[in-house]
Design goal:
The protein is α/β, with parallel strands linked by helices. About 60% of the residues lie in helices and about 10% in strands. It has five helices and four strands; from the N terminus they run αβαβααββα. Helix 1 packs antiparallel against helix 5 and helix 4 crosses helix 5. The radius of gyration is 29 Å and the shape is elongated. It starts with a helix and ends with a helix.
């Protein structure tokens, strides 16, 4: 019985060691991808900030500035752009963002209709299987996201807004806060809130043919920049979450191996003690 028990323990130790090798490898891969993703997200932020400041300088050119991209029309349909991961084993990363998205959608559905653009395989599977109205879906684009890919998505979003197929666009993504904290967030990207009069500032730049037309030209670039930055930020959050999850899994595997090794040594010691006891008993009976 002791021998059989020891074999089972050795088999479990071998299995846990194999799992440990996998989690360690995944932790290293996630760490490498995380560094690259953070660099991309940081560079995207610089681009977005410059574009954002330019847009509001254009709106400040005159006090009567108007655009269809400012709030004002009745909201009948809301479009949700939901960014999740293409793979699992990332702790609560996918669950948190999808939970937030579903709660937002269900709340909106009481007042108006909704459509979804999921980005990431997990988001595509989630909304497709649950019967949501998916108007476009994107998988495996986050790791190597380019501004051209974000522009393609932005063009579809802008066309839907201009054509009246959607009246508001909500973006749900994961914001990287720190290596241990990633926060699922939601923000409205279309329409924009019209700046208050006190926030307008005098500018010396003259825009041709008009500030409104220039603003409408730049707006798709602005939305593409928002999407690019959010996708890059979400991917960095995914890798940080996966790295933490794999690190915890590796620590748990180490602890399990130590416990199993202790159990194996105890079983082995018990078997040796039993054999010695049997030998001594046999020698005494011969006497």
């Amino acid at each position: 019985m002791a021998s059989a028990n020891m074999k089972d323990i050795k088999r479990r130790i071998k299995s846990v060691k194999s799992t440990l090798q996998i989690t360690k490898a995944m932790e290293l891969v996630a760490s490498s991808k995380f560094r690259k993703a953070r660099e991309k997200a940081d560079s995207a932020k610089l681009f977005f900030d410059a574009l954002y400041n330019t847009m509001w300088e254009i709106t400040a050119e005159n006090s009567t500035f108007e655009s269809i991209y400012f709030s004002g029309r009745e909201v009948k349909t809301v479009m949700f752009i939901v960014i999740a991961g293409d793979r699992g084993l990332a702790g609560g990363y996918n669950a948190n963002v999808l939970r937030l998205a579903e709660s937002k959608i269900k709340k909106i559905q009481k007042e108006c209709s909704t459509v979804v653009i999921p980005i990431g395989r997990k988001a595509v599977e989630y909304f497709t299987k649950r019967g949501y109205r998916v108007v476009a879906a994107y998988e495996n684009i986050a790791e190597n996201i380019r501004i051209s890919s974000a522009k393609e998505i932005a063009d579809k979003v802008m066309a839907a807004f201009r054509n009246g197929n959607t009246d508001r666009v909500e973006l749900i993504y994961t914001d990287y806060v720190s290596p241990l904290v990633q926060e699922a967030k939601s923000k409205s990207i279309i329409p924009l809130e019209k700046p208050a009069e006190e926030k307008r500032k005098n500018v010396q730049t003259s825009y041709e043919p008009s500030p409104e037309k220039l603003f409408d030209i730049i707006m798709p670039q602005y939305i593409a920049g928002v999407l690019y930055g959010s996708i890059a930020n979400s991917f960095a959050s995914e890798q940080a979450s996966r790295r933490t999850a794999m690190e915890n899994a590796s620590d748990n595997a180490d602890e399990m191996i130590n416990d199993l090794s202790l159990l194996y040594n105890r079983a082995r010691q018990a078997a040796i003690t039993q054999e010695i006891t049997e030998i001594v008993s046999g020698a005494n009976s011969q006497e």
